[in-house]
Amino acid sequence: MRRLAFLLAGLALIAAGCGKSSDADSPGRIVIGVDVPVTGSPYVAQTIKQGVELAVGNLNGSGGIRVSSRNYKLVVKLYDNHLSARRAVENTRRALDAGAVAVVTDGTGIEATWQLANRDGVAICIAYDGGTGLVDATGRPNVFRIAPTNRGIAFRFAEYLIPKKLKIALLGDDSAYGRQGAADVARAFSENPEAVALKLTLPAGETDLSPQILRVRRSGATALLVWAQPPAIAAVLSAARSIGWDVPVYAPPTGADPFIRQQLADHPGWVDGLTFASGRMTAEVGTAPFLNFQSQYDSTYGVDRVGVKTAAGEPVTQPPEFAMYSYDFVHVLVAAVSRAASVERDKVLAALNEVTTQGANGDERGFNEHSHEGVVDDDVYFARFEDMVFRPVADDALSATLPPIPQTAGG
Amino acid sequence: MSLRRSLGLAGAAAVLAAPAPAGAAVQQVLLPGPTPYPTQSPPLVAGGAPAPASLSFAIRGRALERVVAAVGPNGKLVSLRVLHRLVLRGKGDYLIVIGGPVEDVRAGAGSDSQPGLRTNQILWSGFSAGKKVLAADAQLRPREAGPFLPLRLHPVRGSNSYSLTITNATTVSQIAYAGEGFPRQLAGLLDQTRRESLAGGRLSTAYASVDGLVRVRKDAARTSAPLRIQGSLRFPAAPKSARGGTVRGKTVSFSTVLGDNSPLSLRVGVRGGGGAPRLHVVARPTNLVRALVPPDAPSWAVAVRRRAIPAEVLLRRLVDTRMQLVRSDQYQAFLSNPDPQGTNRTVYVYESAAAPRHRAAPAREPGSSDGGLVLALAIAGSVLGAGGLLVLWAHS
């Protein structure tokens, strides 16, 4: 009986030893949560999710990440926030329970989720919403953003439009996005009131904005800056063009949303001249890095079709701009893991302030103790639509240096 | 070590190490300047992760710095602040990393952008559309940055006197070479160096011909950056007299150049004054004037025509003065300029540190917790006292 006891004890020890050895050899997991509005804003959700997955696929495909003599594989957990802050909170809790070291989001519910994540030392990266106040390196040390900021876009608009001596109508819809943007635009133009003809809030759900546009026209406006969700921008264009008012229309990054072109597909000329601001897709190094990224993206997920055609009948595609931002964040996160030499959340979070990587477009991406913005204001450029595709404008110093990105099969 | 410094040292070493070929005795020797600098700092460098830094060749940078050193009554450094204003000209992207023992940084007045902060790094990133002003107001860690300041202050306070000794702290020993040069060529090089010095620019690269072997000088060259200083001591009461400065009311002011054939320290002695003064000293790395004045002639070329000046003396003067100008140029950038060819100007300001504020004892507010405690103790004492009296009364 005693012998049997010794034998069992010995076997148990051996088994324990084997278990440990096997555990050390098996790759660890670094979980990245992706909380996006899959059912609320499918295009935004898909582009963010696919950017993360593309980066993860590349990194895992090249052997994963080596941290302190152990290999790690990246794992993506997808959650649908349905554009609901409450759902975003639930999703963040689930991501934390799943061991996520970071959560990539469009920005929904950040006001509520950042504290939850911060308590556990988990980084949140916003890859779409440029809202002012969402990111604060001091007050919200775990919130980062790789996307153009509303503040930066608003000031670039002021810098671009004021010298044109236009009388600008500042329009915003009554969505949170529209209200926040309108506030930033008002601040940016506050020192040049002579450039502003009128400020007006538009009803977000309204498809016919004819009365509002008539009022804007009567105010003497010679240009419209519309900070709104895509449907409101489409409605503004419809209302203005249908009465023959060829006023120049300017918009934030939502101006490039395929929805607008889809809505106006029957009147492609109405889209012509729409100018939007966004983060530049190509850097000074040229188009090669971005086109390489786009090629990988397209070959993995297929091209993002806008659903409209050019006058020559070529189908128009959408470059993966926001996918680039979430893709870049994964690389910055991995650089932070490497620098921290640890997968512990607190250490990774601290290291995010200390690393820079080269982004998909050749630009440097990184954060620091004073700034958690991965897209600097200087990188905001302007592009104008013509024949359903856009190209950088020539009358802005930065934009004039940028080559157009191919948006049709023929380029 | 920067690439520029490495290349410069390598070049100098190559010249010194190269044996003179037997038949062709005359060789070209690279004179000091514009680089390498004799020490690694300034400009300040710091450890930590190197960040990818890029500045397009199409962008030029001009750096203007104001280094403000707050010193205590004993002359020791208390805090150090640098206002670093970088003016970029040209179109293109930039990612600039400025190293140093940075404690904190914020945008300075007139900045077109916000600086980033990492461990021992100030970061700038963006696009220059033609001109961009990047102004940083940085707080440095005095213990690490202090040793690279150009002045040492040594105040001594007596019962009815005060003295301040200001010393040029930029002196370094450097290996210098000697050889048989050609007086006319050396005189021409001295004139060229003088012109460049008076113009206030950086030295251009120059070579001297040496006949035969180049030797290392037996005595190491003691090289100092010439510093123009201006300062004032403001006393509580009008001083009776001052040496090394001028009394004007309650203020003693002084001005001199430390270096450039002048003493490397200045002592200002004051009688009276009624206590410790508030000091304000401004130091600027400057050019050489005295050390390059030709002897009794409008130029060195004329001087050697008028009378024989040994080539060895001329070469020594040429090497020494150029090393001083290199040292002066080195102190023109306390924090680095990302454009290696860019111009730098730095002013060093030494000021009396603000006296530490004595924290006044917080006034007790009525009803504060301590007041409540006192009240509670008083009530408890009264109750106990009353109880005791009651017991005494009962037993009486």
Structure description:
The complex is a heterodimer of chains A (411) and B (396). Chain A is an alpha/beta fold and 411 residues long. Chain A folds into 2 domains: 28-149 and 322-376, 3-Layer(aba) Sandwich (Rossmann fold); 151-285 and 303-319 and 379-401, Rossmann fold (3-Layer(aba) Sandwich), CATH 3.40.50. Chain A is built from 13 helices and 17 strands. Chain B is an alpha+beta fold. Chain B contains 6 helices and 20 strands. Chain B has helices at 3-17, 142-145, 183-199, 300-306, 311-330, 369-395; strands at residues 26-30, 54-55, 60-71, 77-99, 102-107, 116-118, 121-140, 151-157, 161-168, 172-174, 177-180, 207-216, 221-223, 227-234, 239-243, 246-248, 251-258, 265-272, 278-285, 344-352. In chain B, the strands form 4 sheets. In chain B, strands 2, 3, 4, 5, 6, 7, 14, 16, 17, 19 and 20 form an 11-stranded mixed beta sheet that branches. Chain B has a 4-stranded antiparallel beta sheet with strand order 8-9-18-15, with no helix packed on it. In chain B, a hairpin with a 2-residue loop joins strand 6 and strand 7. Chain B is flat. Chain A binds chain B through residues 283-284, 339, 353-356, 358, 363-364, 366, 368-371, 376-379, 397-398, 401, and chain B through 49, 51-52, 54, 56, 91-93, 95, 105-106, 113-119, 121, 123, 125-127, 129-130.
Question: How would you describe this structure in keywords?
Answer:
heterodimer, A: 411 residues, Rossmann fold, seven-stranded mixed beta sheet, six-stranded mixed beta sheet, 13 helices, 22% strand, B: 396 residues, alpha+beta, 20 strands, 39% strand, disordered N terminus
